[in-house]
Amino acid sequence: MEIGKRIRIERIMSRDSGNTVIVPLDHGVSMGPIEGIVDLRKTINEVAEGGANAVVVHKGIVAEGHRGYGKDVGLILHLSASTMLSPDPDEKVLVATVEEAIKLGADAVSVHINIGSNTEAEQLMKLGRISRDCREWGVPLLAMMYPRGNGINQFDEKTVSLAVRVGAELGADIIKTNFTGSVESFRKVVEGSPVPVVVAGGPKMNSTEEILKMIDMAMDAGARGVAIGRNVFQAENPRRMTEAISIIVHENMGWREAIKHLQG
């Protein structure tokens, strides 16, 4: 790996554990100013103090999120977007470039790709272009790879494995995807990828125990961390929730120990 990319990877993944806790905060484009990201500076403070390795934001929010004090947190600039009002929310368009990310001080970039969507072909072309630019500039690429489209099961082992492998084949350095529901099935997803896989949180879950159990299973299956947004920034205490997740991801603790930390 080129030295520039290696240096940047170490800003978003722990050197000690080799894993990462990423908190996506890019939901303002797709969903508007929902609970937890209205005051983005406050939320970034909380997840950074809780031990997050990186946050994901859009280019217009970088200055709002810059702290300049306290614990450092990596910056991943999200390059793609769609809104919930779009005729096809699964269609993702590019709204920023790798060069912009470098100018804004980003440590990495991310793109969202929906495999099986009506615009899969265009999205794959964009992924290939971004991958080329990332290789040129030594910038790590986080690809958010989801199987989405008519009649597609987003959590099926085979469809998730396909989406993940596509991201790896086209040059992603880290891949975020859905958990498939069990350690055994997700292990097959991870084994099919030559690059690190991190698990997504998805919609807000019913309980803290549910999300922590899911993370525990994903790590047992070989995941290298998480990229979880709403289940962190909409938690009752985002800092404590980030700490609990970090216990599982970085300290190899189970979900029960994480629950005890939240209750302590």
UniProtKB/TrEMBL annotation:
Pfam families, per the entry: DeoC
Source species, domain of life: Archaea
Role description: Catalyzes a transaldol reaction between 6-deoxy-5-ketofructose 1-phosphate (DKFP) and L-aspartate semialdehyde (ASA) with an elimination of hydroxypyruvaldehyde phosphate to yield 2-amino-3,7-dideoxy-D-threo-hept-6-ulosonate (ADH). Plays a key role in an alternative pathway of the biosynthesis of 3-dehydroquinate (DHQ), which is involved in the canonical pathway for the biosynthesis of aromatic amino acids.
Residues annotated as binding 1-deoxy-D-threo-hexo-2,5-diulose 6-phosphate: D26, H27, G28, V29, S30, Y146, P147, R148, G201, G202, G229, R230
Assembly, per entry: Homodecamer.
GO BP terms, alphabetized: amino acid biosynthetic process; aromatic amino acid family biosynthetic process
Residues at the catalytic site: D26, Y146, K176
Keyword Transferase listed: yes
CDD domains, per database record: DhnA (cd00958)
GO molecular function terms attached to this record: fructose-bisphosphate aldolase activity; hydro-lyase activity; transketolase or transaldolase activity
Name listed for the protein in its UniProt record: 2-amino-3,7-dideoxy-D-threo-hept-6-ulosonate synthase
Keyword Transferase belongs to the record: yes
Keywords: Amino-acid biosynthesis, Aromatic amino acid biosynthesis, Schiff base, Transferase
EC number: 2.2.1.10
